[in-house]
Amino acid sequence: MNVVLSRDGQVRAMEATVVSAEKHFGQLCSLLAAHTRKTARLRDVGDRLVKQLIEVAGSEAPDLRVTLREVAEDLAKVQDYRQAQVERLEAKVIGPLKLYGTQIKQTRAEIKRFKQVQSHELKQLERLEKLRQKSPSDRQVISQAENSVQRASVDASRTTRQLEDTVNAFQRQKLKDLQRVFLDFVTIEMLFHAKAVEVYSSACRTLGSYDPEQDLQDFQAKIWGAAGHVKARPLTDAILGPPSGQSTWSIPGSQATQEEASGDDSADEAALEDLRGQEQGRQH
Amino acid sequence: MNVVLSRDGQVRAMEATVVSAEKHFGQLCSLLAAHTRKTARLRDVGDRLVKQLIEVAGSEAPDLRVTLREVAEDLAKVQDYRQAQVERLEAKVIGPLKLYGTQIKQTRAEIKRFKQVQSHELKQLERLEKLRQKSPSDRQVISQAENSVQRASVDASRTTRQLEDTVNAFQRQKLKDLQRVFLDFVTIEMLFHAKAVEVYSSACRTLGSYDPEQDLQDFQAKIWGAAGHVKARPLTDAILGPPSGQSTWSIPGSQATQEEASGDDSADEAALEDLRGQEQGRQH
């Protein structure tokens, strides 16, 4: 009976190995799949950020426009690398881990088959014991039962050896697969991050070399440029005609007003057109 | 009236600048916040992966255990850097963009105030026109209306200058903020990715140097070691006593069976205990 117990212990140990692998690989697979999904979400947000940056760039001053477009291109590159990362994770990490489920099922089927053989052996053994107690003198029946036990036992031995091979191969594969899958995982991640460093360095240089001053002068010229001639001129100059010399016309702080009173209406119209055009450009 | 129209055009251009900035900064803020949130989710999955790896390591063979624990430590470091990345993005990118909303509100309030002053100027102007048509000879009333127009016009001029300053400052700030926020964004990202490359390189080395062979021998010794003495021995040897010399006992391929028949029961028991202990260790 000790041999049966020992075999039973082995089978339970093998089952435990396979069940534990099934559980662990399943959980690792679902977590690595979640990692891949979250990475894909990050890529989606990145894609939207690229679009938004291009839109913002379109309505900004010339230098900033060029700067933001370059940054958007770099961000788009990062998303391309992220897409490659997602595809590689799916092919080299998630895929193999999913396939692993099939292997585990096969090994569990082997174990089940062995258990049936083992159970048959035990039954033959019990039958023999009963016969020995019931009719100890019936040599022919006992000899037949002994033969049955012998055959069942040989079956069990052979199945044990097969199981041994299967579980050894399974364990070897498991160790190698864990190593391979995680080596692929960290390699894929490392390569992505290395590419991202490269691209973000370029974006850093682009943004660092942007100088807002030129754009600011451009903005001021557009908003205040031609319009500046009239901006501080009191309406009264145009409506009421030239100052009549009364003391009330001379207002403290309105010096610029009088200096700029020479602007003519056609220039004002041009400025207005310019502003309208600019405004339409922004809404564009 | 051209001056009024020109001012109106300026105000609309300024409003367009501010409204466009409000819209763009709002959208950038929400996208960068989404990027930060998705990064935080990736960190959460990473944390769960670290825990799972430590659990898996605990039930694996010695060398793989050490390897997986080192990889888990590296993965944990990446999550720490990711946490720092999330905090820095919140402080240096999302925070400033949110504050920007307040600045935009202030500028819009300035523009609203200017519009009121401008509307008052226009009303005074219309009143003067009416009086001139109704009672062109009433010099006193017309003179009073002219004074009102003059005051309103001076008010409008002063407010225009204030608005000019406000919008110039706003635009300068906007250009610098866009540069600053994106420079901070790409710098924070770049630093994170650089750290990640470092850590994943270390994990690559750890995993690359793992050799499953020693662990496999360890596994075989545990499952088949002591138990191996009985595994292929037919049960009949123990139950039926030594072979009786009958030809049926001599089964082809069972040579190992007979060679190993010398294993004793106490050794089997010890192996069984060992296996049970190991099984409990796996469930642990």
Give an overview in words.
Chains A, B: It holds the Pfam family FAM92. Chains A, B: Residues 261-272 have a biased composition (Acidic residues). Chains A, B: Its main location: cytoplasm. Chains A, B: It is found in: Cytoplasm, Cytoskeleton, Cilium basal body; Cytoplasm, Cytoskeleton, Microtubule organizing center, Centrosome, Centriole. The structure is a homodimer of 284-residue chains. The first copy, chain A, is mainly α and 284 residues long. Chain A has a domain at 12-113 and 161-208: Up-down Bundle (Substrate Binding Domain Of Dnak, Chain:A, Domain 2), CATH 1.20.1270. Chain A is 87% helix and 0% strand. Chain A is built from 8 helices and no strands. The longest helix of chain A has 73 residues, at 62-134. Chain A is rod-shaped and about 125 Å long. Chain A starts with a helix and ends with a helix. Chains A and B meet through helix 1, helix 2, helix 3, helix 4 and helix 6 of A and helix 1, helix 2, helix 3, helix 4 and helix 6 of B.
